[in-house]
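All the exercises in this workshop are built on plain-text protein records. Sequence and backbone structure share a record, each on its own labelled line. The structure tokens are whole numbers drawn from a learned vocabulary of backbone shapes. The record below serves as our worked example for the rest of this section.
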Amino acid sequence: MSATSYHTPTPSNTQPLWRKASLLVAATALLAACASQPSSLRTLTGLDYASPESVGIDSARLERVTQAMQGFVDEGKLAGVVTAAARDGKIFHFESVGQRDIAAGDAMENDDLFRIYSMTKPITGVAMMMLYEEGKFRLSDPVAKYIPEFENLQVYAGTDASGAMLTEPADHPMTIRELMNHTGGLTYGLFSQSAVDDLYNQAQVLAPDSTLQDMIDKLAKIPLRQQPGSLWHYSVSVDVQGYLVEKLSGQRFSDFLEQRIFQPLGMVDTDFFVPADKADRLAEVYAYGPDGKLFASEGFTGGPSYLVEHQFEGGGGGLVGSAMDYLRFSQMLLNGGELDGARILAPLTVELMHRNQLPKGLGDTILGARGTTFGLDFAIVEDPVEAEGYSKGEYYWGGAAGTWFWVDPVENIVFVGMIQQFGNGIPDVRGTSRRLLYQAIMEPNGI
């Protein structure tokens, strides 16, 4: 593939970057004009396009990313995939393969919408740190200072001879830093088994027909799973952060995100639900049947429909968005908190978010990932050798339905991948895309 073709999809699977209803342009012609992008396209995306070679990437090697994603589709492991990457602020890869909806026969397109689940978390973290910059809180503050319902929380301490739950006082109040690095003692009720997790499930802490205040009231009656600061444990702490954003800003959480983050960054497709005029762009979500074949199935039984508005706006996993929107968000982070003149955070605040914020002595393994620490709502590659990565300081996260992204300050790269897939058979799209992208870098910064 030539440098001037902008790494467009192969003819058998060519997808427009935007629907004709959005822009009456020929995508291939626009992408070929890497050096002279029309102003209308630049305005829409906010990121210039460039040939891979112009940013030190080998086009032929880069094609392996798309080939691998197409391979997962051809093998029946995934319905469809969108991947996008930028280096030095220029998009050099934006591809879609497979199908958005297998039954309908709809091809995946670059502007399709995805349940990003836990990739909501970094966005919530940015909202928190915007308020931090305004002096609304300190990271060392007790959470109970702003959520009095959390005053004097008890901690699970086992059971007595009759099986009744025993509790003990917390050895210190949970801090906002601990809330933001998942060491506050909370849990999820989804990803681990314990007596406390059982109570979360019984209380339906994250019920879609409830409110953030309902969530707080429920959590206040349940003991912490472990002592604050004693263990990194994935939890509802970012949903609690969404509630804190409301308390500290005086705005509804969704309004704060829309006015302070989404509008300034041009994230036009990110929201807690998909409006009717965009419903045909929402990708179907799939699971694996006993025969290993894909079938359409929402991942969380009783979870929300993303086609209607709900009271509950989960800061830990409630958003729907597009690859382009998240690429813009990621580029803002790589730029030190700014994109296209919209300043969201100061550079030092972004730096603070992807420094190791874990208590001393917790090591460098989270979720089984060796060489990995945790900042403020981001995982961080501390040791690239142990983490089987490339750049020290890379930070990232992913979503329950397989979406993934990373920000690499060394190679000046952001990458976003979108799928909608649950189940143990999900191929290693994250590791594969990382390996194949980095083997295409011919002008590395890290050596």
Observations:
- The chain is about 30% helix and 15% strand.
- The mean pLDDT is 90.
- The first strand starts at residue 48 and ends at 49.
